[in-house]
């Protein structure tokens, strides 16, 4: 189906903004509501979901190295159940891609372009992402290589600029109420970490497949450390008020003032976030197209790209009609759906596949 190939490193560079892009804005606030000053510990706990998901995904890939998750499902649980599961996953990714686009558009409208119709922002982003998806997995991999330095270097630069405003007293007392608040705060970012299941749609196209698990684990570690850094920054600057801010990192940007040259860097943060959101939406868009092609047994993905783009735009408005619904979905619904669809179901399939393979070996002996 897909003629292109990417390296394991390119897969990491794709997954890093895919998980981190939307998380750096909304996760600190959602985590602080439960973890308070221990919000920096929650990403470390949440990363457990990422490690488990990567392990399950790579083990399935070892058993069916040339197939995506949808294709291997037919072989593991039969064609009927496989098609049913594929349909569930298809709607899951259509809904989530629409939700990501809607969150992106809501943020741009509320923070910067209040008089611009949200449909214009949504449509322009989908158009750009469709061009990237149409180019295939190699285009996505090279795009990630190009954009990654534009994400990581400004983030480090931002950390240095904000350092005079950090108050390390805000982190104390550590674990004042035990580990329970930190675990509760890990629920929302835990849902984001289950998105590492997406690598199951990239592993068949790696030109160095033996490194897939190693680099998948590294991607989880990089995202975890980045979220810990972001949570620490907003905590050390804003203190106990983090949970009351919709986008704490944007608020932190207003604290920067160095020599009347570097001041009010909200637009700086927005530029980083838009680049990350572009990669994230493109990856989810691509996965949705691959899932659709696998489910329909279509050998060429390209004819599906534009119709799926229209569906994503429609889902962004139909499924989540208001900003309140978007926030409720992000903080309460998605973490549980994410774990169910992207971790528990693959785990069940892995167990079934192992049992079937053992029965085949016993029968042959």
Mean pLDDT, nearest integer? 84
Task: State the total count of DSSP E strands.
Answer: 2
Following the backbone from N to C, one meets helices and strands in this order, namely: HHHHHHHHHHEEHHH
For the largest beta-sheet, the strand count, sense and barrel status come to: 2 strands, antiparallel
Question: Can you give keywords for this protein?
Answer:
two-stranded antiparallel ribbon; 2 strands
Question: Could you explain the architecture of this structure?
Answer:
The chain is mainly alpha-helical and 365 residues long. Helix content is 75%, strand content 1%. The chain contains 13 helices and two strands; from the N terminus they run ααααααααααββααα. It has a two-stranded antiparallel ribbon. A hairpin with a 3-residue loop joins strand 1 and strand 2 (262-263). Helix 3 packs across helix 13. The mean pLDDT is 84.
SSE blueprint and pairings:
Layout: H1 8-35, H2 42-63, H3 69-77, H4 79-111, H5 118-135, H6 137-162, H7 180-185, H8 187-193, H9 212-238, H10 248-253, E1 257-258, E2 262-263, H11 266-296, H12 302-318, H13 323-364
Antiparallel strand pairs: 1-2
